[in-house]
Specification:
single chain, 157 residues, alpha+beta, eight-stranded antiparallel β-sheet, 4 helices, 30% helix, globular
Length: 157
């Protein structure tokens, strides 16, 4: 059963181009991880995979529309899914971007019951975290080295 999850929308204090360029290369996501969490994570421009508790979860970039849209799909995951990242202009506010994520997953009934709320919460946390980071507020638990990289513009934030 294919189920769609829509994140909330958030206004990010960065331009569409800045956000797009920080997300278009999947190697950039590895740089957001603390050093001690990078083991088992591999990435190149188009693909990213991680092995966690014996399960491998992979994604591949399937579509890029500069500077407004990115789409990822499963690549070696236990179920099929895709994720669409929307980067829309904010009318009357240059340099700001309306950011949202739509995920679609083919989950059986049991998986939907176990994961459905967690997927929705994760999407909303991603939006909140990106909005906060773009405004100089770091989410709790972000290691100091990552905070420093973000603060210095190392990830387009």
């Amino acid at each position: 059963m294919n189920t769609q999850y829509n994140s909330k929308h958030g206004i990010v204090s960065r331009s569409q181009a800045d956000l797009y360029m920080s997300m278009v290369d999947l190697r950039n996501f590895v740089n957001l991880l603390p050093e001690d969490k990078r083991q088992g994570v591999q990435a190149d421009y188009d693909t990213l995979s991680a092995t966690v508790q014996g399960f491998t979860l992979g994604v591949r970039m399937t579509r890029r529309e500069p500077y407004s849209y990115l789409e990822l799909a499963d690549n070696g995951a236990p179920f099929s899914f895709n994720v669409a990242i929307h980067l829309d202009p904010v009318e009357g506010e240059p340099g700001k971007t309306d950011f949202s994520v739509v995920a679609s997953a083919n989950l059986n009934f049991m998986m939907k019951m176990m994961l459905g709320n967690k997927i929705q919460e994760a999407l909303d946390r991603i939006v909140d975290g990106l909005v906060d980071a773009s405004n100089g507020k770091m989410p709790e638990g972000v290691p100091d080295d990552i905070k420093e990289k973000i603060k210095n513009g190392g990830f387009g934030f």
